[in-house]
Amino acid sequence: MKVGLLFGSFNPIHIGHLILANFMANNTDLDTVWLVVSPQNPFKPSNTLLHEFDRLHMVSLAVADNPSLGVSNIEFNMPKPSYTIDTLTYLQEKYPSYEFVLIMGEDNLPLFPKWKNYDRILEYHRVYVYPRSGSVTTELPAMPNVTFIKAPVLDISATFIRKCIKEEKSIKYMVPDEVAEYIKVHKLYL
């Protein structure tokens, strides 16, 4: 089984995440894509993050009707902040017959050499890179385990969605209806 791993805060999950995950699951050699909810990204401040269980629940709601996608809370019981190499190592030990492929946005490439043990990630795992608007080119694409995937580019962000919610503006079509309802009922991001 070849599993693509799309890590994220998903604060909240939005259609950009879902379109990308679905595209990767259905237009590459991946058998499935797991959306890995990260409790705390080492490069992002944690004070803007909704509780991880709320974010996990919204991701679960968003992918419930798609058999090509899965959800993982693997990092919830790991030390924080979460480091990708540790998660990949743990997953490989837990599922030895699976091949795990890291899915990352092109905008992460300039920071990638700052990731903990990034060279080990490249040595033991493939990395599928999708385009992001405004990305800076780096040396990394020349690496043999890095593959660029021409996935659709959708310029939408969770930051923009949170801003809309605070300003009491509609987020319809930016997030799945079930996620919008969850946010509304639980008065999140206000």
UniProtKB/TrEMBL annotation:
Pfam family example for this protein? CTP_transf_like
Tell me which InterPro entries the record gives: Cyt_trans-like, NadD/NMNAT, Rossmann-like_a/b/a_fold
Quote the Gene3D superfamilies the UniProt record gives: HUPs
Q: What class of enzyme is it?
A: transferase
Q: Which GO terms describe its molecular function?
A: ATP binding; nicotinate-nucleotide adenylyltransferase activity
What reaction does this catalyse?
nicotinate beta-D-ribonucleotide + ATP + H(+) = deamido-NAD(+) + diphosphate
Question: What EC number is given for this enzyme?
Answer: 2.7.7.18
Q: Where is the Cytidyltransferase-like domain?
A: 6-163
Keywords assigned by UniProt, alphabetized? ATP-binding, NAD, Nucleotide-binding, Nucleotidyltransferase, Pyridine nucleotide biosynthesis, Transferase
Q: What name has this protein been given in UniProt?
A: Probable nicotinate-nucleotide adenylyltransferase
* Gene name, Swiss-Prot/TrEMBL: nadD
